[in-house]
Design brief:
alpha+beta, 11 helices
Length: 473
């Protein structure tokens, strides 16, 4: 049973959920700048408020922990689902549900903190925005030159991985000189990490150009505070790009040495651990910066009501598109900005499209694959006619035992699940072969038609043998 996607999902989902948990539900709320998206104030330090906030944070943290445990149990149950496509659909659903449900205690905490704030009669200078003129445009920390080299190296390594998967060059066993199966496809994964690395360029620029936060009437304090924050974000961005490059290089080297999925999984696990550790250190440093400058704060802007549920910023009076997140590090968009509205609409469409696509694939996997001869054509059908091959064009049909390792199937594009291999593949080193195979049959038929080579089978071994006999006649 093919388990690489499950292990990748586990390696990504579990640390991400734990990081969200520790960021959104801290044990020591007094050290945080925000409590469930509400700005922390000295007014919350009186005896009555402390006891209420202690009780609230403990209760929300307990609820979130229960959600985490249930999610982990459900992830474990997913591993027992035999069909890979159904597992993929289940993974997508459980991850989406976890993100949504894990935010429910946070929303509850945000509502109760705003209620407590109203009870205490806390009113600041609402609606007033301060602009630091002295430091305008002068506080910058992101240096593009620091990430150009790793980005170029990542592009080169990805190109080598792509050429390897297309059969143009051979990296499998290149270092050891030992012939390897060459079944590990690395260009899609390394391509994804290349895209992630390239995305860090605009992210770094946007985060560096975010408007300076005004916390004091002293301009020097404001400049030092914002410079420290931006340097921390820039350092995190740069470190991420370098770690990304190291992982891509390691993946290609793993293919050159071993072509082992286990080694690749270990590398991915180490990568995620390093990334999560780096994010933890970055958040810790950001909290230390906030604590250091908190005693210098002389200006308090009450914009809590502009944050819906403590996480979605909506302020029509604010012309900024990007604002700092209230939990963790990074930026979010102003949902009241025209571009922000468009981005949220795109996110919703992408989520719905992903769910629809996975549902379609799940139906497709359960639809039988049939091969028949009708009106002088061999028709390979699954929900539609994938191939219509004239019988009189078929040359040299051969019947073989279906052994995926022997065939060394490497998908160029198409569909691949536990049972189905369909599309254009590299087979036994030959590129651009048209494949229509399912594991319910123990046999396959290969033949040429025009300039194309086909590998097909029917829905059972007997039907495949019968089809072969018809073609040989």
């Amino acid at each position: 049973m093919y388990r690489l996607p499950d292990i990748i999902n586990l390696v990504i989902a579990v640390p991400t959920a734990l990081l969200i948990f520790f960021l959104a539900y801290p044990v020591k709320w007094k050290d945080r700048k925000y409590i469930f998206g509400v700005r922390n104030r000295e007014d919350f330090k009186n005896e009555n408020a402390i006891s209420r906030i202690d009780e609230l944070t403990a209760g929300c943290r307990k609820q979130a922990l229960i959600i985490i445990v249930i999610s982990l149990l459900m992830m474990g149950l997913i591993l027992f689902i035999p069909d890979m496509t159904i597992r993929l659909v289940a993974w997508t659903i459980i991850i989406l549900l976890e993100i949504i449900i894990l935010s429910i205690p946070y929303m509850r905490g945000n509502a109760e903190m705003k209620s407590l704030k109203a009870e205490l009669g806390i009113v600041a200078e609402k609606g007033i925005t301060y602009t630091e003129l002295k430091g305008a445009g002068s506080v910058s920390a992101f240096k593009l030159s620091k990430i150009v080299v790793p980005e170029i190296i990542t592009v080169i390594v990805f190109a080598a991985a792509l050429l390897n998967d297309l059969g143009v060059i051979q990296l499998h066993g290149l270092v050891t000189g030992k012939a390897l199966d060459g079944t590990l496809i690395i260009s899609p994964m390394t391509g994804c990490f290349l895209i992630i690395g390239l995305m860090m360029i605009p992210i770094g620029i946007y985060m560096d150009k975010i408007r300076n936060e005004v916390i004091s009437e002293d301009s020097d304090i404001n400049m030092n505070f914002n410079r420290a924050k931006k340097k921390n974000m820039a350092d995190t961005n740069t470190a991420f790009v370098w770690i990304n490059m190291i992982f891509v290089i390691s993946s290609v080297l793993a293919v050159a040495f071993t072509d082992s999925e286990f080694v690749f999984i270990v590398l991915l696990a180490v990568y995620m651990i390093v990334i999560m550790g780096g994010l933890f250190l970055s958040v810790r440093k950001m909290l230390a910066i906030d604590r250091h400058y908190r005693k210098s704060t002389t200006i308090d802007i009450d914009d809590d009501d502009n944050w819906i549920l403590g996480s979605i910023y909506y302020n029509p009076d604010d012309k900024r598109l990007n604002v700092e997140k209230r939990e963790g590090i990074g930026i979010t968009v102003n949902a009241a900005h025209p571009v922000g509205k468009a981005l949220y609409a795109v996110i919703i469409v992408v989520l719905l499209g992903t769910i629809f696509s996975l549902g379609f694939v799940a139906v497709l996997v359960k639809t039988p694959m049939t091969v028949s001869i009708q009106n002088g054509n061999v028709i390979c059908h699954q929900m539609k006619d994938d191939y219509r091959i004239p019988v009189n064009s078929i040359k040299d049909p051969e019947l073989g035992k279906l052994d995926y390792e022997e065939l060394s199937l490497r998908r160029q594009y198409g569909m691949a699940t536990d049972k189905i291999q369909k599309g254009v593949y590299t087979v036994k080193g030959e590129i651009d072969c048209k494949v229509f195979l399912n594991s319910d049959s123990q046999y396959y038929i290969t033949f040429s038609s025009g300039d194309d080579t086909y590998y097909i089978n029917a829905s059972s071994s007997d039907e495949t043998k019968e089809l072969y006999e018809q073609l040989t006649k």
